[in-house]
């Protein structure tokens, strides 16, 4: 779906590659040495960076890691759940995650975000994921899909756990951190969390 855009009626992966280029540029602009990619899959986001800096990819899928190692031999991988990073001793200057956390429930999302901050001495996290700006915009989107006789698309959205920007901002601020948000396209947002 990501590469061929087939079956992506919601435009979930519009501007996918452009967004990744923007994030890679942002990472290299910080002049850092170590990156951890949470839920890295096959390394699409940070694999190219492994030519210049130390990149550790964390994913629970052995198949994804095997493909990632084939594509990016200089990238390091650990088979691990993003919800339990107790075995990971490495720290990073920045932790990133792309299109992963929307698959978790609210408690798991908070745990994953907490783990991202735990593995990061600088407390800098970049998150690319699916989000609604607020509950009102989510409800309006639902009504629009149902009015257009597309309950199937709404059912798909409901099966995921898209972030609500307002709630993410509140969570971050409650943890005495700052956040900048950028709406990319459709449901895709970039959130940068920092001290």
UniProtKB/TrEMBL annotation:
InterPro entries: Methyltransf_25, SAM-dependent_MTases_sf. One of its GO terms (biological process) is methylation. It comes from the Bacteria. GO terms for molecular function: methyltransferase activity. Residues 35-116 form the Methyltransferase domain. The keyword Disulfide bond does not apply. Pfam families: Methyltransf_25. The keyword Methyltransferase applies. CDD domains: AdoMet_MTases. Keywords: Methyltransferase, Transferase. This is Class I SAM-dependent methyltransferase. It comes from Clostridium manihotivorum.
């Amino acid at each position: 779906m990501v590469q061929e855009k087939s079956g992506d009626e919601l435009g979930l992966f519009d501007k996918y590659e452009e967004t990744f280029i923007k994030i890679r540029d942002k990472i290299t602009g910080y002049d850092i040495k170590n990156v951890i990619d949470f839920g890295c899959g096959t390394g699409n986001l940070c694999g190219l960076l492994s030519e210049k800096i130390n990149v550790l990819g964390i994913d629970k899928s052995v198949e994804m890691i095997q493909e990632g190692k084939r594509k990016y031999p200089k990238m390091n991988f650990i088979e691990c759940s993003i919800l339990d990073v107790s075995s990971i001793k490495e720290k990073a200057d920045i932790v990133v995650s792309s299109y992963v956390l929307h698959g978790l429930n609210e408690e798991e999302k908070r745990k994953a975000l907490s783990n991202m901050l735990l593995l990061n001495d600088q407390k800098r996290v970049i998150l690319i994921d699916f989000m609604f700006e607020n509950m009102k915009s989510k409800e309006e989107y639902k009504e629009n899909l149902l009015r257009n006789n597309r309950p199937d698309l709404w059912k798909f959205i409901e099966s995921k756990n898209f972030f609500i920007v307002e709630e993410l901002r509140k969570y971050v601020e409650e943890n005495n951190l700052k956040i900048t948000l950028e709406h990319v396209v459709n449901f895709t947002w970039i959130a940068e969390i920092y001290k």
